[in-house]
């Protein structure tokens, strides 16, 4: 009996290790959303270099009102298993739609956008050459690209490209507000923010001509 129990324990540990290995592989694609009505469950499908993960977090009115925390479920398949699991694919299609399922299949089969395989430095360098409309469209592709399209490194680079070298004051403001926010400020908004910071700086007296400080340094 002890031998059987030990064998079962080893199998459980191997399965846990397998799931961790697949879920922890490099992320290629991700979708999140709510299950079709009347369910309110939260679902996530994640495609990695090791496989496909489908997570479900049950959301119930009774659980919310009674303070109960629902136990999430997780199904983890290798890329090969996903390719032949019609039920798994159907659930992804019902939740996220036919087009999303096509994207998941492309990612799982290795036929995916080369952008997702680039390093962050190279990806940001490429994005900095795009126009703003293209960056906005690219940010809608998936979470990974959305995060990169909104990161400070990209928007600082775009600021330097479009506005020139930022002054120390603008750099400090960007640290506080974010480079994307500063990039989209017009001159009046920027001067108001800089004036506010000067007034809030202890022991600093704002000069009458401060509102005409140049925005960039040579």
From TrEMBL:
Signal peptide: none annotated. It comes from the Eukaryota. Pfam families: F-box-like (PF12937). Residues 195-218 are annotated as: Disordered. InterPro entries: F-box-like_dom_sf, F-box_dom. Residues 120-160 form the F-box domain. This is F-box only protein 36. The lineage of its organism: Eukaryota, Metazoa, Porifera, Demospongiae, Heteroscleromorpha.
């Amino acid at each position: 009996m002890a031998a059987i129990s030990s064998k079962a324990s080893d199998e459980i540990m191997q399965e846990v290790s397998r799931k961790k290995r697949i879920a922890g592989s490099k992320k290629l694609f991700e979708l999140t959303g709510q299950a079709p009505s009347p369910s309110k469950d939260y679902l996530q499908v994640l495609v990695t270099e090791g496989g496909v993960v489908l997570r479900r977090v049950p959301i119930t009115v009774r659980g919310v009102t009674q303070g109960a925390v629902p136990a999430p479920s997780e199904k983890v398949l290798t890329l090969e298993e996903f390719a032949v699991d019609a039920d798994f694919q159907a659930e992804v299609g019902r939740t996220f739609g036919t087009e999303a399922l096509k994207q998941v299949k492309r990612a799982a089969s290795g036929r995916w956008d080369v952008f997702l395989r680039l390093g962050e430095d190279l990806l940001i360098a490429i994005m900095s050459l795009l126009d703003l409309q293209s960056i906005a469209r690219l940010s809608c592709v998936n979470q990974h690209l959305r995060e990169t399209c909104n990161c400070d490194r990209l928007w600082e680079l775009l600021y330097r490209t479009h506005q020139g070298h930022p002054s120390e004051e603008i750099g400090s403001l960007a640290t506080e507000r974010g480079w994307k926010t500063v990039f989209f400020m017009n001159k009046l908004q920027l001067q108001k923010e800089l004036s506010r910071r000067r007034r809030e700086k202890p022991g600093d007296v704002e000069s009458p001509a401060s509102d005409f400080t140049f925005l960039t340094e040579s």
